[in-house]
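Q: Hi! New to this. If I give you a protein sequence and the SMILES for zinc ion, can you show me the bound structure?
A: Yes, paste them in.
Q: Okay, here:
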Amino acid sequence: MKAAVLYELNQPVVVDDIDMEGPKKGEVLVRVAATGVCHSCYHAVTGKISYPLPVVLGDEGAGIVEEVGEGVTLVKPGDHVILSWVPSCGYCIYCTQGYSNLCLKARQSERGSLFDGTTRYKKNGKTIHHYAWVASFAEYTVIPQESAIPIDKEIPLDKAALVGCSVTTGFCAATNTAQVRPGSSVVVFGTGGIGLNAIQGAAVAGAEKVIAVDLLDAKLEMARQLGATHTINASNLDPIPEIQSLTDGLGADYAIEAIGVNVTYEQAIRAIRPRGKAIWIGVPDREPLSLEPGILGGEKMVMTSTYGSARPRDDMPRLLALYRAGVLRLDELISRTYQLEEINEAFEDLLNGEVARGVIQF
Ligand SMILES: [Zn+2]
Ligand SMILES: [Zn+2]
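A: Thanks. Here is the predicted structure of the protein with zinc ion bound:
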């Protein structure tokens, strides 16, 4: 089976022919139809997100169930599914409280393996790991049934794939984590795959002002198309005074950081008003963050966001319903499609900010 494997940090990903076992108890074999090229996979390449190697990358996929293992009840062969990178168990303390994005069973499992602690991939007898449960940079993947979210068969699978990571993470960071209220003001730092969807989420939630901050004019233009009412190119200026002048001098109700660098973590706090919420989504730097504590004064709140605080089995089908209703834009997000063999080129385009989303189609 053809898969894109990361063998060594900071080296090109290798499209390799690897061996795959079928699904075991509670697992599902999915033929991957499409997979988005997500920045978090690139973080695995650089080691910013640390994973056991070698690993089949890919965390944003959709496909068709080919085969199910013993005891699988949630899907059947032929079902179209989004691959969720949190296989929410449904009965742990977080799942029962409605925070299935933080499922304890999933978090306590061994990184890079399935629930039984083993993997389904090998090359020359050597174990290859699964990235983020999903491992969608491959023709086929074996996932826990809890990661298979059934969807309507009429939804094109390349669009559905995006809902597997960036759309849900960004959109729901605005609607679920921040709980953006109608008529409010929202600043989004970073207009990549996550940030653009946070902008969509804020706009759909009824924010009056959605202010996008980035360093590239082309990305800010894209942000406008997806619902930003104002844009700030912060290459040569401090965005905070601009944000304040757009928000009655007080700062925004919400700021969403979708980059993962200390400068913008701090700017997100400076951008909000007293009682405002700063949401950090970006994968954090390993560098310590030094803050003057007073900038949190006035009961400002900071919260991180995992998978947009989404309940995948509930939120993903609803996001697709919004797509079908013409409210959520997915077609516009796909700026380029690639073959699996072009994965390293797709990463380069991502790093250069040349694509809203690159999608690999099988
Ligand atoms: Zn992702
Ligand atoms: Zn759980």
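A: The radius of gyration is 20 Å. Let me know if you'd like me to explain how to read the tokens.
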